[in-house]
Write a structure and sequence with these properties.
Order of helices and strands: HHHHHHHHHHHHHHH
Number of domains: 2
Number of helices: 15
Structural class: mainly alpha
Length: about 325
């Protein structure tokens, strides 16, 4: 069953929006296979997924891009899943298992640092391509063109202002891409291990299991990279170091946001808040996007120092 999941994940890896689900499914499946049968069986299952990704990718794109896409699938799903399966087979802790899974993420981050200059020089080329694609899209969809004209104006100067805003967004996205990638990679690894632990318990596998979510709390050590990221943004003068600090903060903010959300869940449990009010709160947090993420991150950061749930956890342990 797990082998079939890994093989199928190679097929949906090519579908935008579903490739994240593909990576999570592959990681979970390979953890189960490696923990139960060893890495040799996992290599066989993963090779089927890689071949499927290359074959179906070659049908929709050039061969070189299909191979690069399969290589990304290898780095983001196959290697982490097998590495975490090896750690789970050795009865490592959940944290250490996650470290094993995160190791492949260091390669893209390292390459971004080494080739930062070339990436910067390629930004104008990327922006011109994005501008060309946006113009083509606006010409193809009159409704979008009308919306842009109503917002920015129909004259040439207003339209140029619109493209300046697009350029700023794309340039910023490129500069913070490493932090977003690392945070997303960490999320996939954690979810993969969580799913593997859930299904592993049903077949008698002893896999690393997380503590209940409402008890999650960030380690005090996470304050060090957070402080370093802030220091780089405030005190450094070079563009490289400032965005390095921003990328660090993106990662730590997501970690603190998860633990801040755990604080909310813990108090919902403590006061037996009805499900409907919980759902309303979750929807508000989701719709608030960046503001909600920032609020949860601040809550998680403060909780790492003061531990707001100490009384809640103690009560549940004494039941």
């Amino acid at each position: 069953m797990s082998g079939a999941v890994v093989a199928c994940s190679g097929l949906i890896w090519l579908i935008p929006g579903l490739n994240v689900l593909s990576a999570i499914a592959a990681i979970a499946g390979l953890i189960l296979i490696t923990a139960r049968f060893g890495y040799s069986r996992a290599l066989v299952s993963s090779s089927v997924g890689i071949i499927a990704a290359i074959f179906f990718g070659s049908l929709t794109m050039e061969q070189d891009f299909a191979i690069l896409n399969a290589a990304a699938y290898l780095i983001m799903a196959i290697i982490p899943g097998i590495a975490m399966g090896v750690a789970a087979r050795g009865f490592y802790s959940p944290a250490r298992t996650i470290y094993y899974g995160m190791a492949p993420a260091l390669l893209p981050i390292l390459l971004c640092g080494l080739f930062y200059g070339e990436i910067q020089r390629s930004v104008p080329v990327i922006l011109n391509q994005v501008k060309s694609d946006v113009v083509q899209t606006l010409d193809s969809y009159p409704i979008l063109n009308k919306m842009v004209s109503q917002t920015y104006g129909a004259d040439g100067e207003a339209r140029e202002h619109f493209f300046e805003q697009v350029d700023k967004i794309v340039a910023l996205s490129i500069k913070i891409a490493p932090g977003l990638f690392f945070a997303g990679f960490l999320t996939n690894v954690v979810l993969g291990l969580f799913i593997a632990g859930h299904f592993g318990s049903k077949v008698g596998l002893m896999l690393p299991r997380f503590r209940p979510f409402h008890t999650w709390r960030a380690s005090d050590w996470w304050f060090l990279p957070t402080a370093a990221g802030l220091a780089l943004i405030v005190f450094s003068r070079g563009d490289f170091w400032q965005f390095a600090g921003a990328n660090i903060l993106i990662v730590t903010a997501n970690i603190y946001a998860a633990t801040g959300f755990a604080v909310i869940v813990a108090f919902f449990r403590r006061f037996s808040v009805p499900l409907i009010f919980r759902l309303i709160f979750y929807i508000i947090i989701f719709l608030s996007m960046l503001a909600g993420l920032l609020a949860l991150a601040i809550l998680g950061l403060v909780d790492s120092r003061f531990n707001f749930r100490r009384e809640t956890v103690e009560k549940e342990e004494n039941r």
